[in-house]
Write a structure and sequence with these properties.
With 453 residues, the chain is α/β, with parallel strands linked by helices. The protein is built from 17 helices and 13 strands. It has a single domain, classed as Glycosidases (TIM Barrel), CATH 3.20.20. Helix 7 runs parallel beside helix 9. The two termini are 15 Å apart. The structure holds 1-deoxynojirimycin (NOJ). 1-deoxynojirimycin binds next to loops.
Length: 453
C-alpha cells in the first residue's frame, strides 16, 4: 500500500464512551451523566457510569493498542474530570489520569492525539446556559489553557471540538443527545457560534505554549456528496454540493467546515438563515478563524449525486437491497477518496481521517474468538479509496479507526459495537477481533489490500 512515511495509523475513542468512573476521584457531572438518568433517553437505560472501565484499565488498553501495532491513539479529555464545575477548582486526580495515560502511550511508542471536547459538557455550566451563553467560549478557553499547560509538552496533535455539527444539532435541536434541548434555529446557530468561538480560543491557548511542533485542528463530521459516476459533470456537481447550502440544512458542511476554517460565514448561510444568523460581535470572526494546521474529518456517510436531466443536482436513491452496516448506514467506501480530496482542494490543509468505522453484529464465537469479516472488508475498501486519494496528491497524514473497542454509543447505549476489540461488558474482558489483527497486518505493511483476510 502506498501510504506515506510517518503516516499515523490509529484508533479513536472518547472519554464518556469508555472511561467509566463517572463519579470517582472528584470528577464533576457532565450533561451526559445527567441525560442518561432520564427515562427513555438511552437505549435500555444504559449509561456511561462504568462503560469500558478504561479509567482503571488504561494500562491493559494501551497494551492492546501495542499488540495491534497502532502508532497513534486519539482519545478525549473529560472537561468535568479536570474542572468539576467547568471553571475554577482544578481536580488534580483527573489531570493525573491523563498524564499517566499519555506517559503509558509514549512509552509504548504510540503518538497521542487529544480531543479537548467530545460532548461531555460540564453540567454546572449547562445550568448557566451552556453553549447558548456567550461566556461558554471563555469557560472552554480556561479549560483548554489548563490542559495545554500540563500536557502540551507530551501531546503534539490536538483537536479542539469533536463533531460540533452533531453535538449542536442532536443536543440542541432534536434533543436526541445530551443536554436534550429543542431550541429554535436562531438559538441553535447561536450555540454553534459560541462553540466556534470556543474552538478559536482553544487554538489560541494551545499556540500560547509556543511549541513549534504542535498541530491544532477541528474534527467535524464530514457528510460527503460522492459523484454517481466519474463523469466530470457529476464530479463538478458533487464538488459544489459539498460546500453549498441551497436550503435550510443545519448539517451542511457550508456551516461546519467552512466557518472555522475560513473564519467567515458563507454567503449561503446569510441567505438561507437570514435573521436567524448569530449575533456577531466585533472580533468574533478573527477568533473563530484561527489558522489551523490540519483539518480532521470524521467520515461515516455520504450520498451519491449526479447532474440531473435538467442540469440540477440530484441525490441518487440507495436502490434496492443496499449494503448496510448493523446501524443501517450505507456502505460507501468512496467517501474516503472524495472526502479528503474535496477538503484538500478547497482548504489546502493536510487532512486526518479522525474517525471512520462501522458497527457490526459481533459476538464471541464457539471457538472463543470474535470473527468480524465485514469489518475487515470495510477497512480494506475504505483504505483502498484513501490510498487512491493519497496517490493522486491529497495530503492525508493519518487514519484513526472508530473505535479501538466496543463502547457506549450515546443514545444507542451498548447496542452498537464499533470496536476493533470486543468488550464483554459483564466481565470487562477484552478480545481482539479478527479485524484488529488484520488492521495490525495492514499497519505492518504485510497485507496487500486485496480483500483477503
Ligand atoms: C462519531 C462520534 O464522534 C463518536 O462518538 C461516535 O461513537 C461515532 N461517530 C459512531 O457513531
Amino acid at each position: 500500500m502506498g501510504f506515506p512515511e510517518g503516516f499515523v495509523w490509529g484508533a479513536a475513542t472518547a472519554a464518556y464512551q469508555i472511561e467509566g468512573a463517572a463519579r470517582e476521584d472528584g470528577k464533576g457531572l457532565s450533561v451526559w451523566d445527567v441525560f442518561c438518568q432520564k427515562p427513555g433517553a438511552v437505549w435500555q437505560g444504559n449509561t456511561g457510569d462504568i462503560a469500558c472501565d478504561h479509567y482503571h484499565r488504561y494500562k491493559e488498553d494501551v497494551a492492546l493498542m501495542k499488540e495491534i501495532g497502532l502508532n497513534g491513539y486519539r482519545f478525549s479529555i473529560s472537561w468535568p474530570r479536570i474542572l468539576p464545575s467547568g471553571t475554577g477548582n482544578l481536580n488534580e486526580k483527573g489531570l493525573s489520569f491523563y498524564e499517566r495515560l499519555v506517559d503509558e502511550l509514549l512509552a509504548a511508542g504510540i503518538q497521542p492525539c487529544a480531543t479537548l471536547f467530545h460532548w461531555d459538557f460540564p453540567y454546572e455550566l449547562f445550568l448557566l446556559g451552556g453553549w447558548l451563553n456567550r461566556d461558554s467560549a471563555d469557560w472552554f478557553a480556561g479549560y483548554a489553557d489548563v490542559v495545554a499547560r500540563r500536557l502540551g509538552d507530551r501531546i503534539k496533535l490536538w483537536i479542539t471540538l469533536n463533531e460540533p455539527n452533531v453535538f449542536i444539532n442532536l443536543g440542541h435541536l432534536s434533543g436526541r443527545h445530551a443536554p436534550g434541548m429543542k431550541y429554535q434555529t436562531a438559538q441553535v446557530l447561536q450555540c454553534a457560534h459560541n462553540a466556534f468561538r470556543a474552538h478559536g480560543k482553544a487554538v489560541q491557548a494551545l499556540r500560547a505554549l509556543g511549541a513549534r511542533d504542535l498541530q491544532a485542528g477541528i474534527a467535524p463530521n464530514l457528510f460527503v456528496c460522492v459523484p454517481g459516476t466519474e463523469d466530470p459533470a457529476d464530479v463538478e456537481v458533487a464538488r459544489a454540493m459539498n460546500f453549498a447550502m441551497t436550503e435550510k440544512n443545519m448539517h451542511s458542511n457550508a456551516i461546519w467546515f467552512e466557518t472555522p476554517i475560513t473564519g467567515r460565514y458563507s454567503e449561503d448561510c446569510f441567505r438561507v438563515f437570514g435573521p436567524d444568523m448569530p449575533h456577531i460581535i466585533e472580533g468574533d470572526m478573527e477568533t473563530i478563524g484561527q489558522p489551523l494546521d490540519f483539518v480532521g474529518a470524521n467520515q461515516y456517510f455520504g450520498h451519491r449525486v449526479r447532474r440531473g436531466a435538467n442540469g440540477h443536482p440530484e441525490i441518487l436513491s440507495w436502490g434496492t437491497g443496499p449494503d448496510l452496516t448493523a446501524f443501517k448506514w450505507l456502505l460507501l467506501p468512496e467517501i474516503l477518496y472524495w472526502g479528503p480530496k474535496f477538503l484538500y482542494e478547497r482548504y489546502k490543509l493536510p487532512v486526518y481521517i479522525t474517525e471512520n468505522g462501522l458497527s457490526n453484529a459481533d459476538w464471541i464465537a464457539f471457538d472463543g474468538m470474535v470473527h468480524d469479516p465485514q469489518r475487515i472488508d470495510f477497512i480494506t475498501r475504505h483504505l483502498q479509496e484513501l490510498e487512491r486519494a493519497i496517490r493522486e496528491g491529497t495530503d492525508v497524514r493519518g487514519y484513526f479507526h472508530w473505535s479501538l473497542m466496543d463502547n457506549f454509543e450515546w443514545a444507542e447505549g451498548y447496542k452498537e459495537r464499533f470496536g476493533l476489540v470486543h468488550v464483554d461488558f459483564r466481565t470487562q474482558r477484552r478480545i481482539l477481533k479478527d479485524s484488529a489483527r488484520f488492521y495490525g497486518d495492514v499497519i505492518a505493511g504485510g497485507r496487500r489490500m486485496s480483500g483477503q483476510s
